[in-house]
Amino acid sequence: MQRGKRLKKADHSEGRTPYISATALNNGVDGFVGNESGVRKFSNCLTVANSGSVGSAFFHQYEFVASDHVTQLKREGLDKYAYLFMLPLINRLSEKYSFNREINDNRIKREKLILPATQTGEIDFAFMSSFMKEIEQDILKTTLKTFKDRMSVNKCKIWGG
Q1: Which of 56, 74, 120, 131 could covalently link to 24 via disulfide, CB atoms 3.0 to 4.6 Å apart?
Q2: What are the CB-based long-range contacts (under 8 Å, 24+) for 118-123?
Q3: How far is Cα 72 from Cα 26, in angstroms, rounded to an integer?
Q4: DSSP string covering 27-90, please?
Q5: What's the whole-model pTM score?
Q6: Contact call for residues 8 and 68 (beta carbons, < 8 A)
Q7: DSSP structural state of residue 19
């Protein structure tokens, strides 16, 4: 767990690295920067907004620069699916905190997530990953079927069939 570093708008240099801040929009991306020094870069982790859109959490598989208004949450050995499983749980923090009651470092350290466990009581990251892979496959199958159905309807309209 580590908070990003303050980078004022006036100090942003033009670039292609996503700048993650406390917005609930666009996966937290508030622009793109080219800054290399005096910033904190992260990748393959979650971010949670400490202020602004408090509690908004996102997964970032790519390298990004984090503002001081977000905290990076990372655990070695997790894949994107385990992180995706945890997102809705972390997003629930927005119900507890607000613009007037921000998530500071001490508060976030005290938060607990209820996660699936193995028979031995360890967090079952393998289950979380497997579960989210199934969800992704279900969504892809449904989406592809919808697109194929629409394409066949449109072909009939175009060809007069």
Answers
A1: 56
A2: none
A3: 17
A4: GGEEEEE---SS--EE-SEEEEESSSSTT-EEEE-S-EEE-TTEEEE--TT--HHHHHHHHHHH
A5: 0.82
A6: no
A7: E
Radius of gyration of the chain (CA): 20
Place of tokens 């894949």: 79
Q: Exposed, middle or buried by CB within 10 Å (0-12, 13-18, 19+), for 33? A: buried
94 torsion bin: left (phi>0), alpha (psi -120 to 50), beta (else): alpha
Contact 28, 20 (CB under 8 A): yes
Classify 120 as helix, strand or coil: coil
- Separation between Cα atoms, residue 97 and residue 50, nearest integer Å: 9
* DSSP bridge partners of 19: 65
- pLDDT (tens digit, 9 = 90+) per residue, 4-37? 999 988 889 999 999 999 999 999 999 999 999 9
DSSP character for 160?
T
Contact in structure between 74 and 59 (CB atoms under 8 Å): no
Smallest CA-to-CA distance from 69 within 142, 13, 152, 4 is with 4
